[in-house]
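Troubleshooting entry. Yesterday's outputs looked truncated, so today I'm pasting the complete records for two proteins to confirm everything comes through intact. If either block looks cut off, that's the bug. Protein one:
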Amino acid sequence: MIFYILRRLVSVAVTFIVVSLIIFFMMHAIPGGPFDANDMPVSAAVREKLMANLGLDQPLWVQYTRYMWGVLHFDFGVPYQSPGETVTQLLSRAWVPSLVLGGLGVLIGAPLGILLGMAAALNRNTWIDYLASTLATLGLTIPVFVTSMLLILVFAVWLNWLPASGWGKPERWILPITAYALIPLATYARYTRSAMLDTLNRPFVTVLRAKGLSERRIVFQHVLRNSAIPLVTVFLPMFIGTATGSIFVEAMFRVPGLGAYFVSSIEGRDYPLEMALMLMITFMYCIAYLLSDIVYALINPRIRVGGTP
Protein backbone atom coordinates (compact mmCIF):
# COMPACT_ATOMS: atom_id res chain seq x y z
CA MET A 1 0.00 0.00 0.00
CA ILE A 2 2.76 2.46 0.94
CA PHE A 3 4.70 1.81 -2.26
CA TYR A 4 1.52 2.15 -4.29
CA ILE A 5 0.77 5.53 -2.70
CA LEU A 6 4.31 6.69 -3.37
CA ARG A 7 4.04 5.66 -7.02
CA ARG A 8 0.74 7.47 -7.35
CA LEU A 9 2.19 10.60 -5.75
CA VAL A 10 4.98 10.53 -8.33
CA SER A 11 2.36 10.22 -11.08
CA VAL A 12 0.50 13.16 -9.52
CA ALA A 13 3.68 15.25 -9.73
CA VAL A 14 4.24 14.25 -13.37
CA THR A 15 0.63 15.02 -14.25
CA PHE A 16 0.89 18.36 -12.47
CA ILE A 17 3.95 19.35 -14.53
CA VAL A 18 2.49 18.16 -17.84
CA VAL A 19 -0.79 20.00 -17.27
CA SER A 20 1.04 23.15 -16.21
CA LEU A 21 3.09 23.08 -19.45
CA ILE A 22 0.03 22.52 -21.62
CA ILE A 23 -2.04 25.24 -19.94
CA PHE A 24 0.81 27.74 -19.86
CA PHE A 25 1.70 27.47 -23.53
CA MET A 26 -1.94 27.30 -24.62
CA MET A 27 -2.62 30.54 -22.74
CA HIS A 28 0.17 32.34 -24.52
CA ALA A 29 -0.76 30.82 -27.89
CA ILE A 30 -4.12 32.63 -27.80
CA PRO A 31 -3.91 35.96 -29.67
CA GLY A 32 -4.02 39.09 -27.53
CA GLY A 33 -2.79 39.97 -24.10
CA PRO A 34 -3.98 41.24 -20.72
CA PHE A 35 -3.73 44.88 -21.82
CA ASP A 36 -5.28 44.64 -25.29
CA ALA A 37 -8.92 44.97 -24.22
CA ASN A 38 -10.98 47.73 -25.83
CA ASP A 39 -12.66 48.70 -22.56
CA MET A 40 -9.34 49.87 -21.08
CA PRO A 41 -7.04 50.89 -23.95
CA VAL A 42 -3.48 51.94 -23.14
CA SER A 43 -0.75 53.40 -25.27
CA ALA A 44 2.04 51.27 -26.68
CA ALA A 45 4.58 52.79 -24.27
CA VAL A 46 2.41 52.11 -21.24
CA ARG A 47 1.71 48.57 -22.45
CA GLU A 48 5.41 47.86 -22.85
CA LYS A 49 6.11 49.16 -19.36
CA LEU A 50 3.34 47.05 -17.85
CA MET A 51 4.54 43.98 -19.71
CA ALA A 52 8.09 44.58 -18.44
CA ASN A 53 6.92 45.07 -14.84
CA LEU A 54 5.01 41.77 -14.95
CA GLY A 55 7.83 39.93 -16.70
CA LEU A 56 5.66 39.23 -19.76
CA ASP A 57 8.39 40.52 -22.09
CA GLN A 58 10.65 37.62 -21.12
CA PRO A 59 10.90 34.36 -23.11
CA LEU A 60 8.14 31.88 -22.35
CA TRP A 61 10.44 29.37 -20.74
CA VAL A 62 11.69 32.06 -18.35
CA GLN A 63 8.12 33.06 -17.46
CA TYR A 64 7.15 29.43 -16.91
CA THR A 65 10.15 28.71 -14.72
CA ARG A 66 9.56 31.78 -12.57
CA TYR A 67 5.88 31.02 -12.15
CA MET A 68 6.40 27.37 -11.22
CA TRP A 69 9.13 28.35 -8.77
CA GLY A 70 6.59 30.60 -7.11
CA VAL A 71 4.03 27.77 -7.10
CA LEU A 72 6.49 25.58 -5.21
CA HIS A 73 6.51 28.30 -2.55
CA PHE A 74 2.68 28.66 -2.65
CA ASP A 75 3.02 32.00 -4.43
CA PHE A 76 0.60 32.09 -7.39
CA GLY A 77 1.19 35.74 -8.19
CA VAL A 78 -1.18 38.69 -8.37
CA PRO A 79 -4.35 38.57 -10.52
CA TYR A 80 -4.49 41.27 -13.18
CA GLN A 81 -8.22 41.83 -12.62
CA SER A 82 -7.77 42.38 -8.88
CA PRO A 83 -4.26 43.76 -8.29
CA GLY A 84 -5.01 44.72 -4.69
CA GLU A 85 -4.80 41.10 -3.53
CA THR A 86 -2.88 37.94 -4.33
CA VAL A 87 -4.31 35.01 -6.27
CA THR A 88 -4.38 32.98 -3.06
CA GLN A 89 -6.41 35.66 -1.29
CA LEU A 90 -8.83 35.94 -4.21
CA LEU A 91 -9.37 32.17 -4.41
CA SER A 92 -9.83 31.79 -0.67
CA ARG A 93 -12.43 34.59 -0.72
CA ALA A 94 -14.34 33.42 -3.79
CA TRP A 95 -14.20 29.73 -2.96
CA VAL A 96 -16.32 30.02 0.18
CA PRO A 97 -19.70 30.44 -1.58
CA SER A 98 -18.86 27.75 -4.14
CA LEU A 99 -17.67 25.31 -1.51
CA VAL A 100 -20.67 25.86 0.76
CA LEU A 101 -23.37 25.72 -1.91
CA GLY A 102 -21.79 23.08 -4.15
CA GLY A 103 -20.61 20.94 -1.25
CA LEU A 104 -24.01 20.97 0.41
CA GLY A 105 -25.60 20.19 -2.94
CA VAL A 106 -23.53 17.01 -3.31
CA LEU A 107 -23.89 16.02 0.35
CA ILE A 108 -27.68 16.34 0.06
CA GLY A 109 -28.13 15.01 -3.47
CA ALA A 110 -25.90 11.94 -3.21
CA PRO A 111 -27.70 10.27 -0.24
CA LEU A 112 -31.09 11.03 -1.79
CA GLY A 113 -29.88 9.55 -5.07
CA ILE A 114 -28.69 6.39 -3.29
CA LEU A 115 -32.07 5.98 -1.60
CA LEU A 116 -33.86 6.55 -4.90
CA GLY A 117 -31.64 4.04 -6.68
CA MET A 118 -32.14 1.47 -3.92
CA ALA A 119 -35.90 1.88 -4.11
CA ALA A 120 -35.77 1.38 -7.89
CA ALA A 121 -33.56 -1.70 -7.66
CA LEU A 122 -35.59 -3.36 -4.91
CA ASN A 123 -38.84 -2.69 -6.80
CA ARG A 124 -37.70 -3.51 -10.30
CA ASN A 125 -40.26 -3.11 -13.12
CA THR A 126 -42.78 -1.42 -10.84
CA TRP A 127 -44.07 2.15 -10.88
CA ILE A 128 -41.40 3.04 -8.29
CA ASP A 129 -38.67 1.86 -10.65
CA TYR A 130 -40.17 3.71 -13.61
CA LEU A 131 -40.63 6.91 -11.60
CA ALA A 132 -37.07 6.80 -10.23
CA SER A 133 -35.61 6.10 -13.67
CA THR A 134 -37.62 8.95 -15.21
CA LEU A 135 -36.49 11.41 -12.54
CA ALA A 136 -32.86 10.31 -12.91
CA THR A 137 -33.00 10.63 -16.69
CA LEU A 138 -34.54 14.09 -16.50
CA GLY A 139 -31.96 15.19 -13.94
CA LEU A 140 -29.11 14.13 -16.22
CA THR A 141 -30.49 15.40 -19.51
CA ILE A 142 -31.97 18.79 -18.59
CA PRO A 143 -29.20 21.43 -18.51
CA VAL A 144 -28.52 22.96 -15.12
CA PHE A 145 -29.28 26.49 -16.31
CA VAL A 146 -32.75 25.32 -17.37
CA THR A 147 -33.47 23.77 -13.98
CA SER A 148 -32.12 26.92 -12.33
CA MET A 149 -34.50 29.09 -14.34
CA LEU A 150 -37.41 26.79 -13.49
CA LEU A 151 -36.56 26.95 -9.78
CA ILE A 152 -36.46 30.75 -9.89
CA LEU A 153 -39.66 30.94 -11.90
CA VAL A 154 -41.64 28.61 -9.64
CA PHE A 155 -40.37 29.36 -6.14
CA ALA A 156 -39.26 32.98 -6.45
CA VAL A 157 -41.64 34.47 -9.04
CA TRP A 158 -44.87 32.48 -8.95
CA LEU A 159 -44.99 31.30 -5.34
CA ASN A 160 -42.75 34.04 -3.92
CA TRP A 161 -41.48 31.67 -1.25
CA LEU A 162 -37.75 32.21 -1.65
CA PRO A 163 -35.41 34.97 -2.86
CA ALA A 164 -34.28 34.54 -6.44
CA SER A 165 -30.60 35.33 -5.97
CA GLY A 166 -27.86 36.43 -3.63
CA TRP A 167 -25.53 34.87 -1.13
CA GLY A 168 -25.66 36.52 2.28
CA LYS A 169 -28.57 34.93 4.14
CA PRO A 170 -29.16 31.15 4.45
CA GLU A 171 -32.60 31.38 2.82
CA ARG A 172 -30.83 32.56 -0.33
CA TRP A 173 -28.86 29.28 -0.40
CA ILE A 174 -31.89 27.00 -0.85
CA LEU A 175 -32.44 27.41 -4.59
CA PRO A 176 -28.76 27.18 -5.64
CA ILE A 177 -28.23 24.16 -3.38
CA THR A 178 -31.28 22.53 -4.95
CA ALA A 179 -29.91 23.20 -8.43
CA TYR A 180 -26.53 21.75 -7.41
CA ALA A 181 -28.14 18.70 -5.77
CA LEU A 182 -30.13 17.58 -8.82
CA ILE A 183 -27.11 16.30 -10.74
CA PRO A 184 -25.62 14.11 -7.96
CA LEU A 185 -29.12 12.91 -7.11
CA ALA A 186 -29.76 11.76 -10.68
CA THR A 187 -26.24 10.34 -11.11
CA TYR A 188 -26.30 8.35 -7.89
CA ALA A 189 -29.81 7.07 -8.56
CA ARG A 190 -28.69 5.53 -11.85
CA TYR A 191 -25.38 4.20 -10.50
CA THR A 192 -27.01 2.71 -7.41
CA ARG A 193 -29.82 1.06 -9.34
CA SER A 194 -27.44 -0.48 -11.89
CA ALA A 195 -24.91 -1.65 -9.29
CA MET A 196 -27.51 -3.12 -6.95
CA LEU A 197 -29.32 -4.99 -9.73
CA ASP A 198 -26.02 -6.50 -10.78
CA THR A 199 -25.19 -7.53 -7.21
CA LEU A 200 -28.68 -8.91 -6.49
CA ASN A 201 -28.32 -11.32 -9.41
CA ARG A 202 -25.08 -12.83 -8.09
CA PRO A 203 -25.05 -16.36 -6.63
CA PHE A 204 -23.91 -15.34 -3.15
CA VAL A 205 -27.19 -13.42 -2.63
CA THR A 206 -29.12 -16.63 -3.30
CA VAL A 207 -26.91 -18.45 -0.81
CA LEU A 208 -27.52 -15.79 1.84
CA ARG A 209 -31.27 -16.06 1.35
CA ALA A 210 -31.05 -19.85 1.58
CA LYS A 211 -29.26 -19.48 4.91
CA GLY A 212 -32.25 -17.57 6.24
CA LEU A 213 -30.80 -14.05 6.49
CA SER A 214 -33.37 -11.30 6.49
CA GLU A 215 -33.78 -9.25 3.32
CA ARG A 216 -32.82 -6.07 5.17
CA ARG A 217 -29.57 -7.59 6.40
CA ILE A 218 -28.76 -8.93 2.94
CA VAL A 219 -29.37 -5.55 1.33
CA PHE A 220 -27.56 -3.31 3.81
CA GLN A 221 -24.68 -5.56 4.92
CA HIS A 222 -23.89 -7.38 1.69
CA VAL A 223 -25.55 -6.00 -1.43
CA LEU A 224 -25.01 -2.31 -0.73
CA ARG A 225 -21.41 -2.87 0.35
CA ASN A 226 -20.59 -4.81 -2.82
CA SER A 227 -22.30 -2.11 -4.88
CA ALA A 228 -20.35 0.73 -3.29
CA ILE A 229 -17.30 0.75 -5.55
CA PRO A 230 -18.88 2.66 -8.47
CA LEU A 231 -20.44 5.04 -5.95
CA VAL A 232 -17.05 5.78 -4.43
CA THR A 233 -15.63 6.33 -7.91
CA VAL A 234 -18.13 9.08 -8.62
CA PHE A 235 -18.27 10.87 -5.27
CA LEU A 236 -14.95 12.67 -4.87
CA PRO A 237 -14.61 13.87 -8.50
CA MET A 238 -18.23 15.02 -8.43
CA PHE A 239 -17.71 16.82 -5.13
CA ILE A 240 -14.65 18.60 -6.48
CA GLY A 241 -16.33 19.53 -9.74
CA THR A 242 -19.34 20.95 -7.91
CA ALA A 243 -17.55 22.57 -4.98
CA THR A 244 -15.24 24.53 -7.28
CA GLY A 245 -18.21 26.39 -8.71
CA SER A 246 -20.62 26.12 -11.59
CA ILE A 247 -20.52 28.94 -14.10
CA PHE A 248 -24.22 28.61 -14.90
CA VAL A 249 -25.58 28.14 -11.37
CA GLU A 250 -23.56 31.01 -9.94
CA ALA A 251 -24.54 33.27 -12.84
CA MET A 252 -28.25 32.40 -12.59
CA PHE A 253 -28.40 32.97 -8.82
CA ARG A 254 -25.80 35.77 -8.75
CA VAL A 255 -23.53 33.96 -6.34
CA PRO A 256 -20.08 35.60 -5.98
CA GLY A 257 -18.27 32.29 -6.24
CA LEU A 258 -15.34 30.76 -8.05
CA GLY A 259 -17.11 29.77 -11.27
CA ALA A 260 -17.10 33.22 -12.87
CA TYR A 261 -13.32 33.50 -12.54
CA PHE A 262 -12.81 30.51 -14.84
CA VAL A 263 -14.37 32.61 -17.61
CA SER A 264 -13.00 36.04 -16.69
CA SER A 265 -9.43 34.76 -16.34
CA ILE A 266 -9.54 33.39 -19.90
CA GLU A 267 -11.30 36.39 -21.42
CA GLY A 268 -9.00 38.88 -19.68
CA ARG A 269 -5.80 36.86 -20.27
CA ASP A 270 -5.29 36.82 -16.51
CA TYR A 271 -2.40 34.36 -16.67
CA PRO A 272 -1.63 33.97 -12.94
CA LEU A 273 -5.27 33.38 -12.01
CA GLU A 274 -5.93 31.04 -14.93
CA MET A 275 -2.87 28.95 -14.12
CA ALA A 276 -3.77 28.80 -10.44
CA LEU A 277 -7.32 27.64 -11.19
CA MET A 278 -6.19 24.91 -13.60
CA LEU A 279 -3.41 23.68 -11.32
CA MET A 280 -5.77 23.63 -8.34
CA ILE A 281 -8.34 21.56 -10.24
CA THR A 282 -5.66 19.18 -11.54
CA PHE A 283 -4.18 18.57 -8.12
CA MET A 284 -7.55 18.06 -6.48
CA TYR A 285 -8.70 15.54 -9.09
CA CYS A 286 -5.43 13.58 -8.83
CA ILE A 287 -5.75 13.36 -5.05
CA ALA A 288 -9.44 12.46 -5.36
CA TYR A 289 -8.73 9.45 -7.55
CA LEU A 290 -5.86 8.39 -5.28
CA LEU A 291 -8.16 8.47 -2.26
CA SER A 292 -10.82 6.57 -4.23
CA ASP A 293 -8.37 3.76 -4.95
CA ILE A 294 -7.43 3.54 -1.28
CA VAL A 295 -11.08 3.45 -0.23
CA TYR A 296 -11.64 0.61 -2.71
CA ALA A 297 -9.31 -1.62 -0.72
CA LEU A 298 -11.00 -0.66 2.56
CA ILE A 299 -14.49 -1.40 1.24
CA ASN A 300 -13.61 -4.65 -0.52
CA PRO A 301 -10.59 -6.52 0.91
CA ARG A 302 -10.42 -8.66 -2.25
CA ILE A 303 -9.15 -5.59 -4.11
CA ARG A 304 -5.45 -4.99 -3.67
CA VAL A 305 -4.04 -1.68 -4.81
CA GLY A 306 -0.86 -2.01 -6.71
CA GLY A 307 -0.89 -5.57 -7.82
CA THR A 308 -1.56 -9.07 -6.58
CA PRO A 309 -5.03 -10.17 -5.46
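Protein two, checking that the full record survives here as well:
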Amino acid sequence: MIIVMAVALAAVLAGHRLLPELGGLTPVLESLLPWLGAAVPLLVIGALLTRSWRTVAAALLPALVWGVMFGPALLRTAPGGQSDLSVATLNVGVTNADSGRAVRALAGGRDLFAAQELTPGGPAAEELGRHFPHRVQVSTIGLWSRFPIIEHRAVDIGLEWTRALRAVVKTPGGNVTVYVMHLASARPGETAQRDSTLTHARRLIDADKSENLLLLGDLNTATTDRKLSGLVPPLSDAHLEAGTGFGFTWPASFPVTRPDHILYRGLTATGADVEPAAGSDHRAAVASLRL
Protein backbone atom coordinates (compact mmCIF):
# COMPACT_ATOMS: atom_id res chain seq x y z
CA MET A 1 0.00 0.00 0.00
CA ILE A 2 2.80 2.45 0.86
CA ILE A 3 4.50 1.72 -2.45
CA VAL A 4 1.27 2.40 -4.35
CA MET A 5 0.65 5.64 -2.45
CA ALA A 6 4.22 6.82 -2.97
CA VAL A 7 4.18 6.12 -6.69
CA ALA A 8 0.77 7.80 -7.01
CA LEU A 9 2.00 10.91 -5.14
CA ALA A 10 5.12 11.13 -7.30
CA ALA A 11 2.99 10.78 -10.43
CA VAL A 12 0.60 13.54 -9.34
CA LEU A 13 3.49 15.88 -8.53
CA ALA A 14 5.35 15.25 -11.77
CA GLY A 15 2.34 14.98 -14.05
CA HIS A 16 -0.23 17.32 -12.53
CA ARG A 17 -0.51 19.32 -15.76
CA LEU A 18 -1.69 16.16 -17.51
CA LEU A 19 -4.62 15.65 -15.15
CA PRO A 20 -8.11 16.50 -16.44
CA GLU A 21 -10.07 19.29 -14.78
CA LEU A 22 -11.86 16.77 -12.52
CA GLY A 23 -14.87 18.95 -11.88
CA GLY A 24 -12.79 21.97 -11.03
CA LEU A 25 -10.77 20.21 -8.33
CA THR A 26 -7.53 20.24 -10.32
CA PRO A 27 -7.00 24.03 -9.95
CA VAL A 28 -7.34 23.57 -6.18
CA LEU A 29 -4.84 20.72 -6.25
CA GLU A 30 -2.38 22.77 -8.30
CA SER A 31 -2.80 25.81 -6.06
CA LEU A 32 -1.79 23.68 -3.08
CA LEU A 33 0.77 21.57 -4.94
CA PRO A 34 3.82 22.32 -2.73
CA TRP A 35 1.86 21.15 0.30
CA LEU A 36 1.66 17.62 -1.09
CA GLY A 37 5.21 17.28 0.16
CA ALA A 38 3.81 17.11 3.69
CA ALA A 39 2.78 13.51 2.95
CA VAL A 40 6.36 12.43 2.27
CA PRO A 41 7.56 12.17 5.91
CA LEU A 42 4.49 10.11 6.76
CA LEU A 43 5.21 7.74 3.89
CA VAL A 44 8.87 7.44 4.88
CA ILE A 45 8.01 6.70 8.54
CA GLY A 46 5.49 4.07 7.44
CA ALA A 47 8.06 2.57 5.08
CA LEU A 48 10.70 2.38 7.80
CA LEU A 49 8.29 0.51 10.03
CA THR A 50 7.95 -2.18 7.35
CA ARG A 51 11.75 -2.74 7.45
CA SER A 52 11.62 -3.19 3.67
CA TRP A 53 14.27 -1.29 1.73
CA ARG A 54 12.14 -1.61 -1.37
CA THR A 55 9.31 0.17 0.39
CA VAL A 56 11.66 2.82 1.77
CA ALA A 57 13.06 3.45 -1.70
CA ALA A 58 9.54 3.85 -3.08
CA ALA A 59 8.64 6.28 -0.28
CA LEU A 60 11.66 8.41 -1.18
CA LEU A 61 10.56 8.72 -4.82
CA PRO A 62 8.01 11.53 -4.20
CA ALA A 63 10.60 13.26 -2.00
CA LEU A 64 12.98 13.28 -4.97
CA VAL A 65 10.29 14.62 -7.32
CA TRP A 66 9.24 17.29 -4.81
CA GLY A 67 12.87 18.31 -4.29
CA VAL A 68 13.47 18.71 -8.01
CA MET A 69 10.28 20.76 -8.42
CA PHE A 70 10.44 22.99 -5.36
CA GLY A 71 13.94 22.70 -3.92
CA PRO A 72 15.30 25.57 -6.06
CA ALA A 73 12.67 27.92 -4.58
CA LEU A 74 13.92 27.16 -1.08
CA LEU A 75 17.59 27.47 -2.01
CA ARG A 76 17.32 30.51 -4.28
CA THR A 77 18.83 33.81 -3.17
CA ALA A 78 18.04 37.25 -4.53
CA PRO A 79 20.48 38.35 -7.22
CA GLY A 80 20.70 41.81 -5.66
CA GLY A 81 22.56 44.65 -7.31
CA GLN A 82 21.33 48.02 -8.48
CA SER A 83 17.58 48.51 -8.75
CA ASP A 84 15.62 51.33 -10.37
CA LEU A 85 12.10 50.53 -9.19
CA SER A 86 10.63 49.33 -5.91
CA VAL A 87 7.08 48.08 -6.43
CA ALA A 88 4.31 46.61 -4.31
CA THR A 89 0.87 45.18 -4.98
CA LEU A 90 -1.81 44.53 -2.39
CA ASN A 91 -5.42 43.47 -2.30
CA VAL A 92 -6.31 45.80 0.56
CA GLY A 93 -9.63 44.08 1.32
CA VAL A 94 -12.86 45.89 0.62
CA THR A 95 -14.06 45.49 4.22
CA ASN A 96 -10.67 46.24 5.79
CA ALA A 97 -11.07 49.08 8.29
CA ASP A 98 -7.26 49.10 8.75
CA SER A 99 -6.47 49.51 5.04
CA GLY A 100 -4.93 52.93 5.64
CA ARG A 101 -2.53 51.52 8.21
CA ALA A 102 -1.77 48.58 5.90
CA VAL A 103 -0.67 50.71 2.95
CA ARG A 104 1.15 53.20 5.20
CA ALA A 105 3.46 50.43 6.41
CA LEU A 106 4.14 49.30 2.84
CA ALA A 107 4.43 52.62 1.01
CA GLY A 108 7.75 53.78 2.43
CA GLY A 109 10.51 53.68 -0.16
CA ARG A 110 8.25 52.40 -2.94
CA ASP A 111 8.19 53.90 -6.41
CA LEU A 112 4.99 52.18 -7.56
CA PHE A 113 2.08 50.85 -5.50
CA ALA A 114 -0.80 48.89 -7.04
CA ALA A 115 -3.94 48.31 -4.98
CA GLN A 116 -7.07 46.25 -5.47
CA GLU A 117 -10.44 46.19 -3.68
CA LEU A 118 -10.30 49.89 -3.00
CA THR A 119 -13.28 51.88 -1.84
CA PRO A 120 -13.58 55.31 -3.52
CA GLY A 121 -12.20 57.91 -1.14
CA GLY A 122 -11.52 55.19 1.41
CA PRO A 123 -8.66 55.11 3.93
CA ALA A 124 -6.23 53.20 1.67
CA ALA A 125 -6.61 55.64 -1.25
CA GLU A 126 -6.42 58.61 1.12
CA GLU A 127 -3.26 57.34 2.80
CA LEU A 128 -1.55 56.48 -0.49
CA GLY A 129 -2.30 59.99 -1.69
CA ARG A 130 -0.12 61.31 1.14
CA HIS A 131 2.86 59.22 0.02
CA PHE A 132 2.76 59.50 -3.76
CA PRO A 133 2.36 62.62 -5.94
CA HIS A 134 0.85 60.78 -8.92
CA ARG A 135 -2.06 58.37 -9.09
CA VAL A 136 -4.75 56.86 -11.27
CA GLN A 137 -7.74 55.05 -9.82
CA VAL A 138 -10.40 53.23 -11.79
CA SER A 139 -13.29 51.68 -9.87
CA THR A 140 -11.77 49.41 -7.20
CA ILE A 141 -8.18 49.36 -8.48
CA GLY A 142 -5.47 51.98 -8.59
CA LEU A 143 -1.83 52.80 -9.18
CA TRP A 144 0.20 55.29 -7.15
CA SER A 145 3.58 56.49 -8.39
CA ARG A 146 6.55 58.57 -7.32
CA PHE A 147 7.09 59.37 -11.00
CA PRO A 148 4.73 61.11 -13.46
CA ILE A 149 1.95 59.02 -15.01
CA ILE A 150 1.82 60.33 -18.56
CA GLU A 151 -0.93 58.05 -19.91
CA HIS A 152 -3.68 55.97 -18.36
CA ARG A 153 -6.91 54.25 -19.28
CA ALA A 154 -9.21 51.49 -18.15
CA VAL A 155 -8.86 48.19 -20.00
CA ASP A 156 -11.36 45.42 -20.60
CA ILE A 157 -10.69 41.97 -19.14
CA GLY A 158 -14.15 40.59 -19.85
CA LEU A 159 -15.97 41.51 -16.65
CA GLU A 160 -19.14 43.55 -16.29
CA TRP A 161 -17.27 46.17 -14.26
CA THR A 162 -13.79 47.63 -14.58
CA ARG A 163 -11.03 45.79 -12.73
CA ALA A 164 -7.99 46.58 -14.86
CA LEU A 165 -6.06 49.63 -16.01
CA ARG A 166 -3.05 50.51 -18.14
CA ALA A 167 -0.72 53.37 -17.31
CA VAL A 168 2.58 54.66 -18.64
CA VAL A 169 4.99 55.89 -15.97
CA LYS A 170 7.87 58.20 -16.89
CA THR A 171 10.82 57.05 -14.79
CA PRO A 172 14.39 58.43 -14.90
CA GLY A 173 15.43 55.23 -16.71
CA GLY A 174 12.69 55.41 -19.34
CA ASN A 175 8.97 54.81 -19.71
CA VAL A 176 7.42 51.77 -18.06
CA THR A 177 3.98 50.50 -19.00
CA VAL A 178 2.11 49.26 -15.94
CA TYR A 179 -1.00 47.10 -15.89
CA VAL A 180 -2.93 46.73 -12.65
CA MET A 181 -5.45 43.88 -12.69
CA HIS A 182 -7.82 42.11 -10.37
CA LEU A 183 -8.95 39.02 -12.25
CA ALA A 184 -12.15 37.11 -11.57
CA SER A 185 -12.23 34.79 -8.57
CA ALA A 186 -11.67 31.05 -8.89
CA ARG A 187 -13.47 28.49 -6.75
CA PRO A 188 -13.73 24.69 -6.97
CA GLY A 189 -15.77 23.98 -10.07
CA GLU A 190 -16.08 27.69 -10.90
CA THR A 191 -13.00 28.78 -12.83
CA ALA A 192 -14.46 29.61 -16.25
CA GLN A 193 -14.73 33.35 -15.61
CA ARG A 194 -11.24 33.48 -14.09
CA ASP A 195 -9.88 31.61 -17.10
CA SER A 196 -11.63 34.06 -19.44
CA THR A 197 -10.04 37.05 -17.70
CA LEU A 198 -6.64 35.37 -17.98
CA THR A 199 -7.22 35.02 -21.72
CA HIS A 200 -8.14 38.72 -21.97
CA ALA A 201 -5.00 39.63 -20.02
CA ARG A 202 -2.80 37.61 -22.37
CA ARG A 203 -4.32 39.32 -25.40
CA LEU A 204 -3.62 42.72 -23.90
CA ILE A 205 0.01 41.80 -23.18
CA ASP A 206 0.52 40.34 -26.65
CA ALA A 207 -0.91 43.45 -28.30
CA ASP A 208 1.19 45.82 -26.20
CA LYS A 209 4.52 46.61 -27.83
CA SER A 210 6.00 48.43 -24.83
CA GLU A 211 9.60 47.46 -24.20
CA ASN A 212 9.36 47.76 -20.40
CA LEU A 213 6.16 46.34 -18.95
CA LEU A 214 4.83 45.41 -15.51
CA LEU A 215 1.70 43.48 -14.61
CA LEU A 216 0.75 43.91 -10.94
CA GLY A 217 -2.24 42.58 -9.08
CA ASP A 218 -4.42 39.88 -7.64
CA LEU A 219 -4.68 37.43 -10.52
CA ASN A 220 -6.56 34.80 -8.48
CA THR A 221 -4.21 32.24 -10.01
CA ALA A 222 -1.52 30.41 -8.07
CA THR A 223 2.07 30.21 -9.26
CA THR A 224 1.61 26.44 -9.65
CA ASP A 225 -1.75 26.68 -11.46
CA ARG A 226 -1.38 25.52 -15.06
CA LYS A 227 -3.47 28.48 -16.23
CA LEU A 228 -0.74 30.94 -15.21
CA SER A 229 1.36 29.52 -18.02
CA GLY A 230 -0.75 31.72 -20.28
CA LEU A 231 1.13 34.71 -18.81
CA VAL A 232 4.42 33.20 -17.60
CA PRO A 233 5.92 33.15 -20.19
CA PRO A 234 5.80 35.54 -22.09
CA LEU A 235 6.23 37.51 -18.85
CA SER A 236 8.65 36.67 -16.06
CA ASP A 237 7.62 36.25 -12.43
CA ALA A 238 9.59 38.46 -10.04
CA HIS A 239 9.32 36.03 -7.15
CA LEU A 240 10.39 33.03 -9.22
CA GLU A 241 13.37 35.00 -10.48
CA ALA A 242 14.46 36.87 -7.37
CA GLY A 243 12.47 35.70 -4.34
CA THR A 244 13.17 33.12 -1.67
CA GLY A 245 10.71 30.42 -0.69
CA PHE A 246 7.23 30.06 -2.09
CA GLY A 247 6.09 33.63 -1.54
CA PHE A 248 2.57 32.66 -0.44
CA THR A 249 0.24 35.64 0.04
CA TRP A 250 -3.18 34.15 0.88
CA PRO A 251 -4.81 33.82 3.32
CA ALA A 252 -2.83 36.32 5.37
CA SER A 253 -3.26 34.46 8.66
CA PHE A 254 -1.59 31.32 7.28
CA PRO A 255 -0.68 31.70 3.60
CA VAL A 256 -0.92 28.52 1.55
CA THR A 257 -0.91 29.85 -2.03
CA ARG A 258 0.13 32.88 -4.11
CA PRO A 259 -2.60 34.62 -6.15
CA ASP A 260 -0.82 38.01 -6.04
CA HIS A 261 1.86 38.60 -8.64
CA ILE A 262 4.49 40.96 -10.00
CA LEU A 263 5.13 39.98 -13.61
CA TYR A 264 7.35 41.82 -16.06
CA ARG A 265 9.28 42.00 -19.30
CA GLY A 266 12.15 44.23 -20.35
CA LEU A 267 13.35 44.57 -16.75
CA THR A 268 15.45 42.47 -14.37
CA ALA A 269 14.21 41.48 -10.93
CA THR A 270 16.85 42.04 -8.25
CA GLY A 271 14.77 41.06 -5.22
CA ALA A 272 11.27 39.94 -4.25
CA ASP A 273 9.47 39.26 -0.99
CA VAL A 274 6.14 39.15 0.82
CA GLU A 275 5.15 41.61 3.54
CA PRO A 276 2.22 41.65 6.01
CA ALA A 277 -0.68 44.05 5.54
CA ALA A 278 -2.83 44.99 8.52
CA GLY A 279 -6.43 43.83 8.28
CA SER A 280 -6.24 42.41 4.76
CA ASP A 281 -6.79 38.74 4.00
CA HIS A 282 -3.86 39.02 1.57
CA ARG A 283 -0.21 39.74 2.17
CA ALA A 284 1.56 42.18 -0.14
CA ALA A 285 3.88 41.09 -2.94
CA VAL A 286 6.89 43.39 -3.29
CA ALA A 287 9.87 43.48 -5.64
CA SER A 288 12.80 45.57 -6.79
CA LEU A 289 13.66 45.74 -10.47
CA ARG A 290 16.33 47.17 -12.71
CA LEU A 291 15.62 48.82 -16.05
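Both blocks look complete. Sanity check on protein two: The longest strand covers residues 174-182.
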